[in-house]
Amino acid sequence: MYIEISSDDEIEKEIEIKEDFKIILEEGRIKINDYKMLNSYEFINDILIEFYLNDWYTKKLSEEDRERTYVFSTYFYTALAKSFNASDYPAHYTASQIRHKQVKRWTKYVDIFQKDFVFIPVNESNHWFLAVICFPYLSGKVNMKDGTPVNEPVDDAGGYPWPRITYSAVHDRSEADPNDEDLRLFDMASRENLSKKQGLDYETDAEVTKIFRRIQVKRPCILVLDSYSGGVDRARITTTLRGWLEQEYFVKHPGQIKDFSPEAIKGAALRVPQQPNKRDCGLFMIHFVEMFFKRPIVDYTFPILHLKNWFSVDEVVVNCRKRKELQCVILNKMKKKRSTMPEEIELPILDIDYML
């Protein structure tokens, strides 16, 4: 009879794997493995993103801003755009109706048409970016100061033609046709166009916008903020969300009529600061959410151009600043609330612990 004896290395590896799944903080169900994602060479995961956004929403956002804001789970868009078999649904169901049915329960206790901003984290091929539905209750442009309807300024997408695109479906997803959008408003945020020097800083660019645009407006729209810009490819996201928004309105406000055409609720990818590497997308995404209130959009006339210099990338990446900020939130909560980490297990040392 042969008895296989594991080596010491194998035993230590098995113990380490088991320890990785120990919960160190009940709030957010953060495990040691999640905590290790704060190392500078790692992508932060959905657990850390949701934990940070929940803390930001409940602790840092004012009560007034909380009332007008809704933040979806990191799983929402994945569930919305999940591929489906149309034969499983009644023949008269449209693709938008099927998508809406897949996530109908997500808004059981909230009417998003009472919110100014609806934040939707999106993950695609391990890359995080942000979609924001703005002022979904509006039916057109209104003066940002007094809310009165306005017919100007006229949107100007730049005046250049953009042909229809051929697109490939993302694995395990069913999304709407991006060609429904004004693709110029996505091409303007392409990596090629972002490489061109534009503006000075947020404060200056915002003031120039206010001077140039005689009337500052707000309007219903769906925006994409992407730190590794996907350009016209991101039009799939806004057109899919618009279809969901329309179905959501029919359910929550039966019998009422509202225009959900691409002209009425425009979609666009904005020029925003870009990550200098391929791993910090999640950190940039949560920073976008915070900046949305700290340095707001001052005019929603398209194209929106004053966020190119929204913030310095140093605010996120220098000395792993954003990672440390997230780490501090976790450690402080572990001190204030009873940690579930067993006494015999030590919190791992991260490489960011050595950065000043």
Automatic annotation (TrEMBL):
Domain Ubiquitin-like protease family profile: 28-292
A GO-annotated cellular component: cytoplasm
GO BP, one annotated term: protein desumoylation
Entry superkingdom: Eukaryota
Protein name: Ubiquitin-like protease family profile domain-containing protein
UniProt KW keywords: Hydrolase, Phosphoprotein, Protease, Ubl conjugation pathway
InterPro entries found in the cross-reference section: Papain-like_cys_pep_sf, Peptidase_C48_C, Sentrin-specific_protease
A Pfam family it matches: Peptidase_C48
Source species of the chain: Aphis glycines (Soybean aphid)
Phosphoprotein found in the keyword field: yes
Signal peptide residue numbers: none
GO molecular function annotation: SUMO-specific endopeptidase activity
Recorded family membership: Belongs to the peptidase C48 family.
